[in-house]
Automatic annotation (TrEMBL):
This is Methylmalonyl-CoA epimerase. The keyword Oxidoreductase does not apply. It holds the Pfam family Glyoxalase_4. Keywords: Isomerase, Metal-binding. Belongs to the methylmalonyl-CoA epimerase family. SUPFAM superfamilies: Glyoxalase/Bleomycin resistance protein/Dihydroxybiphenyl dioxygenase. One of its GO terms (molecular function) is metal ion binding. Transmembrane segments: none annotated. It comes from Pedobacter cryotolerans.
Length: 135
């Protein structure tokens, strides 16, 4: 794993949270994106080398909606940038980690993603991210 790619924060209201984080971080949201496969709207902020992703559910049966219902607003996941997501998935499986995806899937911000079950990481949902390279 190369570095923390972003920290994901689950929010109830994306619009008001965008305003809050713009004021908090003193920077504009640089991108919003619907990730239909995950039933979430996302908003991204960059401060220095760091990125924050806000996640808001678009469906009551999405994992983010379930997270908000159970835990309330707050840190949802930590994402790590990897060079080769398939190699990293195999490495983690061989180390005994439970992956929530059998194969990488398309995520927000031009990434292929996969999640590691939080029970295997002290209660923290871990996301692997690989930049999609266009040929």
């Amino acid at each position: 794993m190369n570095k923390i790619e972003h920290i994901g924060i689950a929010v109830k209201n994306l619009e008001s949270s965008i305003d809050l984080y713009q004021r908090l971080l003193n920077t504009d949201c640089y991108k919003t994106e619907l990730v239909a496969t995950e039933n979430v709207n996302t908003a991204f902020f960059k401060t220095g080398e760091n990125k924050i992703e806000l996640l808001s559910a678009t469906s009551l049966d999405s994992t983010v909606a379930k997270f908000l219902e159970k835990k309330g607003e707050g840190i949802h996941h930590i994402a790590f940038l990897v060079d080769d997501i398939l190699v990293e998935m195999e490495r983690l499986k061989s180390e005994g980690f439970t992956l929530l995806n059998d194969a990488p899937k398309r995520g927000a911000d031009n990434k292929m993603i996969c999640f590691v079950h939080p029970k295997d990481a002290n209660g923290v949902l871990i996301e692997l991210c690989q930049e999609i390279k266009w040929v």
